Amino acid sequence: MDVYLPIANLSVNGLLIVALGGLTGILSGLFGVGGGFLTTPLLIFYGIPPTVAAASAATQVTGASVSGVLAHSRRGGVDYRLGSVAVGGGIFGAMIGALLFRVLQAVGQIDVVINVLYVVLLGAIGSLMLREALSALRPREGATQQVRKRRHHPLVAALPMRWRFYRSGLYISPLAPFILGVLVGILTMLMGVGGGFILVPAMLYILGMSGNVVVGTSLFQILFVTMATTMVHALTTKAVDIVLAGLLLLGSVLGAQFGTQIALKARPEILRLVLAAIVLAVALRMLFGLGVQPDEIYTVAPL
């Protein structure tokens, strides 16, 4: 089933795009990430211009996050107060990202910047995930694991003002989740990612959040920031392909249901190991792509 993408100006296999959206949905249900960090590179590999891929992927990340937020909300796994602060920062960051996007687009460097950002971030995140997964799988002879109480980073403790975030068990400055939201918003705008692959570790190891609300709160922030990002892209960069976004959205909503079911049965260490391998493979493929001449030397720019 071939469909025509008006903004990207090419025909693609619609079923393949739906399947790609389904993969993103599965990742969302499994790990609490939007999945855009894999969707955008895979769309680029398929021949879709990076600007269109990044702008359109944010839309389906929204769809993949909806069902996840609802599921976690039913079990009390969303800190709406902290999430709302992060959403505010994310929307502000999306505006900053829009300005950067337009500047880079005007000088003809946006495609290169998107690819380089993916290589750096995916390489770093994939390496950390791989090390953590292998460490968790390695048997610890004669060692008794001690459960440590999570504490926020010293830099977070130094920030002024403090609020109580009861669901997360935190008493910290709201500036910490706001700044974190700003950074994620910028990345969402530039790369078409939900930011969960950065947000989840940051909430755990920088903010010191309780583990039972991290995934749900991350998805809550991703949901609203990707909605705002899509609107900003549609109004400013004009790079959102509605047909592509619709196909991805259909697949992601269906895939999220399967991901949630798999997460209930599979070992978390094995899942992290598989995800780390996928992330590193994509990073290496993008690094290779930066070193070879593309088939089509052009970029998509608004008229």
TrEMBL record:
Pfam families, per database record: TauE
Subcellular locations according to the entry: Cell membrane; Membrane
Protein family (similarity comment): Belongs to the 4-toluene sulfonate uptake permease (TSUP) (TC 2.A.102) family.
Entry's transmembrane regions: 12-38, 44-70, 82-104, 110-130, 170-198, 204-227, 239-258, 270-288
Keywords attached to this entry: Cell membrane, Membrane, Transmembrane, Transmembrane helix
Bilayer topology: Multi-pass membrane protein
Major localisation: membrane
PANTHER family: MEMBRANE TRANSPORTER PROTEIN MJ0441-RELATED, MEMBRANE TRANSPORTER PROTEIN YTNM-RELATED
Keyword RNA-binding annotated: no
Protein name in the entry: Probable membrane transporter protein
Organism listed in the record: Altererythrobacter litoralis
Classification via InterPro entries: TM_pro_TauE-like (IPR002781), TSUP/Inactive_protease-like (IPR051598)
